Amino acid sequence: xxxxxxxxxxxxxxxxxxxxxxxxxxxxxxxxxxxxxxxxxxxxxxxxxxxxxxxxxxxxxxxxxxxxxxxxxxxxxxxxxxxxxxxxxxxxxxxxxxxxxxxxxxxxxxxxxxxxxxxxxxxxxxxxxxxxxxxxxxxxxxxxxxxxxxxxxxxxxxxxxxxxxxxxxxxxxxxxxxxxxxxxxxxxxxxxxxxxxxxxxxxxxxxxxxxxxxxxxxxxxxxxxxxxxxxxxxxxxxxxxxxxxxxxxxxxxxxxxxxxxxxxxxxxxxxxxxxxxxxxxxxxxxxxxxxxxxxxxxxxxxxxxxxxxxxxxxxxxxxxxxxxxxxxxxxxxxxxxxxxxxxxxxxxxxxxxxxxxxxxxxxxxxxxxxxxxxxxxxxxxxxxxxxxxxxxxxxxxxxxxxxxxxxxxxxxxxxxxxxxxxxxxxxxxxxxxxxxxxxxxxxxxxxxxxxxxxxxxxx
Length: 459
Description:
Layout: E1 2-6, E2 9-14, E3 30-33, E4 42-48, E5 56-61, E6 65-69, E7 77-78, E8 89-97, E9 103-110, E10 126-133, E11 145-150, E12 160-168, E13 180-187, E14 192-199, E15 210-211, E16 226-233, E17 239-245, E18 248-254, E19 265-269, E20 289-292, E21 303-312, E22 314-322, E23 333-334, E24 346-353, E25 360-366, E26 377-383, E27 391-394, E28 412-416, E29 419-428, E30 445-454
């Protein structure tokens, strides 16, 4: 690894040899760090500009930080003006580009959490906000727009809004092209529900949120709640949405640009989305993602979902697909290619479907090369046969082991025209971090990496 100084950001880049991994190297694999260990970055998101695919925006938790690239993620520069100065915490970030090439950053802001894991009980002021960049992520408008907020913390019937995800309708033939969408969890004292809002004016204003979860979850941030909203858009503008609902994946869709949704329903049984003991990691989830192959005519092609669970004892990553817009689903396919029941975990998956080629990509943390099930690398899987089989590739060579490290609740992945861009966090040994306070042991740091791969020369 070598240290490079860039304008506004000092970053570490990995010169990976991949000789230590049992997997073949992903073509053109590179990894660049966009944060410093002291920032303890995690819960990242990444997006590619469909108008100018060399422009990449990467964001991460650490009070809503962002970096941008103009050279297809070879180098990054830190952006300014993304974190609000009137809230104590800004996290749970996500990012997207719209069909005009504008970048958007969505985040949760709050001053105080409620009772541990029972977030609505005693919560302080909080809200979901969106900030916009008109120049590929270099500069960001200072007036963040509230999607839903409790600005004083004393509003009647105040709830706690959590884990927002933003996405855009970039389908050229969609009647709703240019729309932006945000979905999230609302924690109430007696339940958890999924809310959804849309913008048809490039994020300047947002609709009144609507509830899209027919079934309510439990009110505690644990197994039994609703968790992990993720949405995507098909070529005809149909919105597809999934989340975890207890030991199942819930699914719904909208055909009118997010004004109304079909009743949500449970489509696939899984293990619980919150995993128990994953050595070295403080918290691990397996909630799903959804993607669509834009090929196949105006109505679009296959819909894909991925998730992870421990039905096989150790944690594995799975995928399923639908040819009828989510009415019926295929049997689950195991994405990771290590031996079944080998006791090695694969977790924190994320999926992207290339809108140009239709290839399906899944990234995940991978422990297959360590009999002790501790050393962790990032693996990239690729399917070119409609999700029937996946080829696994090593994305990083060096591994890391944590000591109850908080890697966040998710990673992120995007793809465009055979180029793949992933983002994830890795823990840093305690000896490489600093003390947080006199007399206290050093906290383990985390570094956010962006990985790239190029499958242009492969079929």
